[in-house]
Amino acid sequence: MLNHSEEIAFYNGSDWEKTHINSKFYELHRHIKEVLYRRFLMGIYDSMLVKYGAVMVGYTVIGLPVFGPNKEKYLKEIGDDPSRITKDYVRNSSLLINLAKAIGRIVVSYKDVQNLAGYTTLIYEMKEVLDDLEAGRYKRIMVKSNSLEDQEEEEKKGQGIK
What we know:
Blueprint: H1 5-10, H2 14-67, H3 71-78, H4 82-135, H5 148-159
Helix pairs in contact: 2-3, 2-4
């Protein structure tokens, strides 16, 4: 728009440009809202899965010996003793609840490691730029036109290449 501002003013295109810019800004704003909303829902889903999903699976696995297809074999082994059934249930449930909590912590830790990896990449890129700047290799490029060919021509002119 900066490159063609005289033509836009000459043809009275400011209203069209304003409408076009506003519509693109609205699209960007709507997209950002949708991304944040989805991220919010994924956070809720992850928390529910971590807190309750593993526990539900654990209790299902714990109940299989008593309520599953091989219940007769299990009940025959322990002699149909309710105290042994309760003892096995309590022992297994405490183990599986601790396992579910550990899995939840691993899932949350995985997200934290992903965030840390992103920050590490940004710091590495900044360090590269600072090292190049210190060595005198860093050159700031200003965008003067829309065309890549124009930028390359200006760079060649600056180096004395035809």
